[in-house]
Amino acid sequence: MSLEQRKGTQASGPTNGNSVASSPSQAQVSENRLRLNPNFGHKPESYDDLRLDFSPLLFSSLERYLPPTMLPLPRDTKIQFMRDILLRYFPDGERTRVQRHREYRQKIISNYQPLYKEIYTMHARNFFVPSFLKAIDGNTKDSFRSIMAEPSPGVYTFEMFQPRFCELLLDEVENFERWVHETNFRIMRPNTMNKYGAVLDDFGLETMLEKLMNDFISPISKIFFPEVGGSTLDSHHGFVVEYGIDRDVELGFHVDDSEVTLNVCLGKQFSGGELFFRGVRCDKHVNTDSQSEEVLDYFHVPGHAVLHHGRHRHGARATTSGCRVNLLLWCRSSVFRELKKYQKEFSGWCGECKREKKERQRLSIDATKQELLNGKFAS
């Protein structure tokens, strides 16, 4: 079966910023690429005082991955080096698209009147259930495990949102959609596969969702998804999807444009709509068969979250009655995406790479045993 990768709007991108120093010379930099392993002993500089193309947090995150020869150089030199790398992901046409999307977003925010302003800033005790907050406060693998189930390797489920928050967010989305209909405003859908739903970042919830990623998802991802950029999440794409008889009914087999995906059911009343998972795969193995332990069907519960690697193949079965609305937060790491280009295999996280590596090891051991046996009989 062909597998289409969903493409979402980038949550952040380049804008016109102040100029910086020229690119470092070859004498200064041994290679124009990042380190494979971060220098955790290095304290990154602050970039908050500069008007840059990308988030200051992103530059601070990338700095630990600079070649050793770069670290003592002036800040402007490091900025240009990192900016050159980041711009590989944003050719001229992409930068123009991102700028137009920023203008589109600002037009919405300037005209749309929120229904519940209290959900536009993070109020953790009003948003989350006590068990989730207690686990976050503990900030250990054991504290997170205490609230989680792992029905299939790499798929984590737990109770997260209070019912009242789910209701408020649902009402806010419906209010936004009414405004869109009344004003005949054309909105951008969450991705290429969903015809219904809305991008939450587009009408003012970007700051709250960034806080959600940085303070509540990143601590979990650092522990459970370190091999796929869980320790360096630096941007997001937040949206809701809507399923029902008069909405999207189901969602085909796919992977997400994310390193880590948070999926939380908000409601309402519905039947069907199960998520089905079929294992984590790299690009090379994206269409390979699943192993029995990778097969999972998950039934949505309002307020409960599913956290998984973006490359975990999945889909949604038909919603047979009612209406199901889910919050999706695609969390991304530019550091991981850069480093991934230099890796030859992904045996750390791709299920098929792991299987092939084990098979090579088994064949090698068998061959060694056979050589030893042959030598024994020969003597």
TrEMBL record:
GO terms for molecular function: dioxygenase activity; iron ion binding; L-ascorbic acid binding; oxidoreductase activity, acting on paired donors, with incorporation or reduction of molecular oxygen. Residues 19-30 have a biased composition (Low complexity). It comes from Tripterygium wilfordii (Thunder God vine). Transmembrane segments: none annotated. It comes from the Eukaryota. Residues 1-41 are annotated as: Disordered. This is Fe2OG dioxygenase domain-containing protein. Its cofactor is L-ascorbate.
